[in-house]
Amino acid sequence: MSPKRWAVLLLTVALLAGLGFGGYIVYEKVRQRLTPERCTVVVDDQTVTLTREQATNASIIVAASVSNGLPERAAIVALVTAYQESGLRNLDYGDRDSVGLFQQRPSQGWGTVEEIMDPWYSSEKFYEALTKIDGWEDVDINDIAQKVQISAYPDAYGKHTANATAVAKSLLGEPASISCVNFELADPEPDEFAAVLEAIDADFVVDGDTVTISGDEDEVWSGVNMAMANGYAAGLSRVEVLGKVWTPDKAGWRDAETDSAGAVLTLG
Questions:
Q1: Of 14, 23, 83, 81, nearest to 48 (Cα)?
Q2: What is the rounded distance in angstroms from the CA atom of residue 54 to the CA atom of residue 230?
């Protein structure tokens, strides 16, 4: 939160002091107004903030790499590229006829506009082009992204490597590495993250408004983090996983009262 917003919040708290429960309600409304709804990824010393759209698109990009049996490096290259080309946004405009996450051009054989505007399709096409390049795994990340994209700015990709690496590691299973703040829950909709869980072959079961994820620790955390990245649209309201708990009204993870096996996700 910016210093200006903190000043407004502190002033509000001072004005509402002594007003009791009614004052607390007003305080909460002000706090929610000044606190951006976003997801935060923390891996090692790298902190990355993502909007709802960015988090969802990142999960699709990473899930598509897993479904194609590709290593972590492929997801990092794809994320670096999408960061540079679109800011991880699914744009319906761009230079000349470029559209989508990777600003792929229908006139250059990437597909129709409708196809490219599907994040799953555009991610698949990116990996298809990437893996056709001999020795792509050993090429510098900036340079291999450029070989796929053939951009007019060939040195622009590398600056996104740290953020892309943190996001990829989180979505591939780094424990308790992504959390999101959300004050207005959508209606329960597990289908909003079912596609990414299926793509990473997570073992999950939907029972009404409850979703359970099981497997080894890496698999469980990858599933949880993928679900978290899609939690806004899914109406995710609580996650308890391997001794940790998350709720959408507070940033970060907390210790749970019980050390559960697997993960239990509550919607609505």
A1: 83
A2: 10
In a structure prediction context, what are the per-residue pLDDT tens digits for the chain, which is 268 residues long? 555 555 544 554 454 455 554 543 433 443 444 456 899 999 999 999 999 999 999 999 999 999 999 999 999 999 999 999 999 999 999 999 999 999 999 999 999 999 999 999 999 999 999 999 999 999 999 999 999 999 999 999 999 999 999 999 999 999 999 999 988 889 999 999 999 999 999 999 999 999 999 999 999 999 999 999 999 999 999 999 999 999 998 879 999 988 788 999 999 9
- Tell me the C-alpha distance between 112 and 159, whole Å: 30
Cα–Cα distance measured from residue 74 to residue 257, given in angstroms and rounded to the nearest whole number: 38
Is 228:249 a contact under the CB 8 Å cutoff?
Answer: no
What six digits make up the tokens of 36?
A: 């951006």
User: What is the SS3 string spanning 104-160?
Assistant: ECHHHCCCCHHHHCCHHHHHHHHHHHHHCCCCHHHCCHHHHHHHHHCCCCCCCCHHH
Please state, in angstroms and rounded to a whole number, the distance separating the CA atoms of residues 39 and 259. 25
Domain range annotation of the chain: 3-34, 46-169, 182-267
SS3 35: coil
